[in-house]
Design goal:
2 domains; 447 residues; Beta-alanine--pyruvate transaminase; seven-stranded mixed β-sheet; Aspartate Aminotransferase, domain 2; Aspartate Aminotransferase, domain 1; four-stranded mixed β-sheet; binds pyridoxal-5'-phosphate; alpha/beta
Length: 447
């Protein structure tokens, strides 16, 4: 039997599919089935139009079904559907790497391709450890993450990540020697912030305490999301990232920005590094580089880190870095990447994202004062609302919001009782206003 996306929920045998990051038992009782997508909208199996308020999953800033990406994929399929990246390579992979490097901050000129954000994170951690090792600093083995961080689901990513639910079931598998900085969110100091909070730069000095505790000689890298997306758009306080950079430089610790969400325009600049004026040693990316059409991720690396690993003394026919994936630099993903960057240029999408920031900010903060709202915050084309949880039923209001918003024609992201939105860059002002109206009226209807 072939697939039929129009199958209604009652006719569909849902038993075999184990959904990721989804309460499976609840979903199978209350399925939410999408049949198609075009532009900024999904259409569910009953034919209802649903505004994609979360750009796929932070990955589709161009919206869905842009024919320019489809045509590039069709062309690539006819030219070459697959080519291993081990020992042979397609020229387009080099040109995409160069394009990405040219968009990155100065000095970050090398690109390692992966298939996902999780793989990008684990790759960056391995590059950090490998770099120190070949530099004669094999004792630098610790990686520092941050509370409330999301760095994907690889062993490296969950180890440096700071979401307890992602970690507790797998505690026995964690990487050795990891420690965490405190997160920077503080409701009493920064409620209803617009953009960067002014309080909290001093929290970067906690890194000095970790250095004092472990000794800088044991610390390889600090990895941070410049803006913590998955735990609800936690915006770095003014001066915080600058201070982290200074401390890392002082002690020879590599700074990795995980820009899987923020890369390619989400904060109104190509990378968050540009918006905050802080240059890390590596940047991880994924998601928007292909508009979510085909998986592709990667790490942008400081030139001298690459050179050090290349030149650590092996013979030329020896592999310098024992790492890579069957689908690293997959030609179809590379073709999607080129098409997406072409569209970003021709449609000036980073500036489009920037110009929508005040619209989203104004709309979402207009909900301040409604009952059940604890906080609203925003930066770039991303925003979040914390709802007061129902005592002893955490997450219930979040789920009610997901369902009410879907009924009213909008998809939002829930994390517990936090609602996040990150609309596509192609959104109109009216679509963003409607999205927030739907959220506002859904909150009003909550019990
Ligand atoms: C900051 C960050 N890093 C890593 C990841 C993991 O990416 P993926 O789901 O592609 O593995 C995500 C996913 O949302 C993310 O937000």
């Amino acid at each position: 039997m072939g697939s039929d996306s129009q199958l209604s929920a009652s006719a569909l045998d849902m038993s075999a599919y184990w959904l990721p990051y989804t309460p499976n038992r609840y979903f199978k009782k209350t399925p939410k089935l999408m049949a198609s997508a075009k532009g900024a909208y999904y259409f569910d199996t009953a034919g209802h139009q649903i505004f994609d308020g979360i750009s796929g999953l932070w990955c589709s800033p161009i919206g869905h079904g842009d024919p320019r990406i489809g045509q590039a994929l069709q062309k690539q399929f006819e030219k070459m559907d697959y080519c291993t990246a081990f020992q042979i390579a397609s020229p387009d992979t080099f040109t995409l790497a160069k394009r990405i490097a040219n968009m990155a901050p100065n000095g970050l000129g090398k690109v390692f391709f992966t298939n996902s954000g999780s793989e990008a994170v684990d790759t960056a951690l391995k590059i950090a450890i490998g770099f120190h090792k070949v530099s004669g600093r094999g004792d630098k083995f610790r990686c520092i993450g941050r509370e409330r961080a999301y760095h994907g689901v690889g062993i490296g990513g969950i180890s440096v990540g700071g979401i307890v639910a992602n970690r507790k079931m797998f505690a026995s598998m964690m990487m050795n020697g990891v420690d965490h900085l405190p997160h920077t969110y503080n409701l009493s100091q920064m409620a209803f912030s617009k953009g960067q909070p002014t309080w909290g730069a001093h929290l970067a000095d906690e890194l000095e305490k970790l250095v004092a505790l472990h000794d800088a000689g044991t610390i390889a890298a600090v990895i941070l999301e410049p803006m913590q997306g998955s735990t609800g758009v936690l915006v770095p306080p003014e001066g915080y990232l600058q201070r982290i950079r200074e401390i890392c430089t002082k002690y020879g610790i590599l700074l990795i920005f995980d820009e899987v969400i923020t890369g390619f325009g989400r904060l109104g600049t190509t990378f968050a590094a540009d918006r905050f004026g802080v240059v890390p040693d590596m940047i991880t990316f994924a998601k928007a580089i292909t508009n979510g059409v085909i998986p592709l991720g990667g790490v942008i690396v400081r030139d001298d880190i690459y050179e050090t690993i290349m030149n650590h003394g092996g013979q030329e026919q020896w592999i310098e870095f024992f790492h890579g994936y069957t689908y690293s630099g997959h030609p179809m993903a590379i073709a999607a990447g080129h098409a997406v960057l072409d569209i970003f240029e021709s449609d000036d999408l980073v500036n489009r994202s920037k110009s929508l920031e005040p619209i989203l900010e104004q709309a979402i903060h207009s909900l301040k004062g409604q009952s059940k709202i604890l906080d609203i915050r925003n930066i770039g084309l991303a925003a979040a609302i914390d709802l007061e949880p129902i005592a002893s039923e955490p997450g219930k209001r979040g789920m009610q919001m997901l369902e009410k918003c879907l009924e009213k024609g909008a998809l939002v992201r829930i994390s517990g009782d936090t609602i996040a939105v990150c609309p596509p860059f192609i959104s109109t002002e009216a679509q963003i206003t409607t999205l927030i109206e739907i959220i506002g009226s859904s909150i009003q209807e909550l019990a």
